[in-house]
Amino acid sequence: MNILVTGGAGYIGSHTCVALLEAGHTVIVADNLCNSKAETIDKIKQITNKEITFYQIDVTNEKALDTIFSDNLIDGIIHFAGLKAVGESVEKPLEYYYNNLVSTMVLSKACRKYGVKNFVFSSSATVYGDNTVPFVETIKLMPTTNPYGETKAMSERILTDIAKANPDWAVVLLRYFNPVGAHECGLIGEAPNGTPNNLMPYITKVAKGELKKLRIFGNDYPTVDGTGVRDYIHVMDLAEGHVAALNNLTEGVHIYNLGTGQGTSVLQLVKAFEEANAIEVPYEVVERRPGDIAACYADTSKASIELQCVAKRDLLAMCRDAWRFEKESLGRKDEN
Ligand code: NAD
Ligand code: UDP
């Protein structure tokens, strides 16, 4: 298939481009590089030895999309492009609602105009809010507490209504848990600008000596050791989940969790990282981070049964690959 990948230069998008190209699909990337770099496109080509068509455009720009859809015969789209920092979304709600919602709507309009009926959307486990674990796709979503989460829930709603009105569309809503790690070759990975907010990139910076110690946000949660529990999934397993979704496109709306089904605490992840890489990660326990929940992990039955999609890479592989990318990224421009 010819797949338009929005946000394909970003963290999850770039790994998915690799998985798509390796599965024999043709990839067209649309990315405005607001949180990524053009070099990543070259790295994807280097890893796969395949070509990619790249458009540096904003996907809220209808005219720019017209060019892409008229230049290419697109069979389906995977929409990753979006702003994703929860904290920033509280400070810049308008930017988040505009970018994340308008992109979804303008892309849907372009799909309708050019007869593209296959739409895969990057959603998030954040739509479940503070529910009872494991999260199964059918539970009632809890109101989220930040604009970022709202944009995911609203985009899901918009796409669901569009699919209802257009029964020949296949809409797949993929709810990601916590993607970590990097491609095994160390060429592409997660390279957040500035000090990382997320746990794994923070750990790798501490391991590298760029940050002094990890701050563990709370050890008084009702979890195995008191620290927060999340479902970490290797980014290549997540990427391959998109290939599985494309292999199983059917009309209607289909929602899948993409996680491992395993909950891991902050302390367990620190320990796994230290063991996988034989390196120490100094830490201190501090106050809980506002808005955090105790535990978040997936019920993965639906994706495993309907998509035959099961995460293959374990926690040690996630830690090893995250660290390899961090070590090999010396000299990257965005490092501080
Ligand atoms: P990322 O920031 O690395 O990638 C997003 C890409 O989209 C970037 O390359 C950015 O330049 C591009 N982009 C943003 N707005 C754009 C626009 N208007 N036009 C064109 N390009 C634009 O983020 P990621 O971690 O790869 O996340 C990809 C998607 O998955 C996002 O929608 C995110 O909300 C969702 N998601 C991510 C996580 C996570 O933990 N990383 C978890 C759940 C869901
Ligand atoms: N966390 C932490 N220190 C950090 C970053 C995160 O203790 O510097 C904890 C956080 O409280 C949560 C877990 O690690 O329990 C995962 O946080 P992350 O921000 O990576 O993902 P999310 O909260 O979005 O699931």
UniProtKB/TrEMBL annotation:
One of its GO terms (cellular component) is cytosol. Its cofactor is NAD(+). It is an enzyme of class 5 (isomerase). It catalyses: UDP-alpha-D-glucose = UDP-alpha-D-galactose. Pathway: Carbohydrate metabolism; galactose metabolism. One of its GO terms (molecular function) is UDP-glucose 4-epimerase activity. Keywords: Carbohydrate metabolism, Galactose metabolism, Isomerase, NAD. The keyword Iron does not apply. The keyword Isomerase applies. CDD domains: UDP_G4E_1_SDR_e (cd05247). SUPFAM superfamilies: NAD(P)-binding Rossmann-fold domains. InterPro entries: Epimerase_deHydtase, NAD(P)-bd_dom_sf, UDP_G4E. Residues 3-259 form the NAD-dependent epimerase/dehydratase domain. Its EC number is 5.1.3.2. Coiled coil: none annotated. It comes from the Bacteria. GO terms for biological process: galactose metabolic process. Gene3D superfamilies: NAD(P)-binding Rossmann-like Domain, UDP-galactose 4-epimerase, domain 1. Belongs to the NAD(P)-dependent epimerase/dehydratase family. Homodimer. This is UDP-glucose 4-epimerase. It comes from Clostridium vincentii.
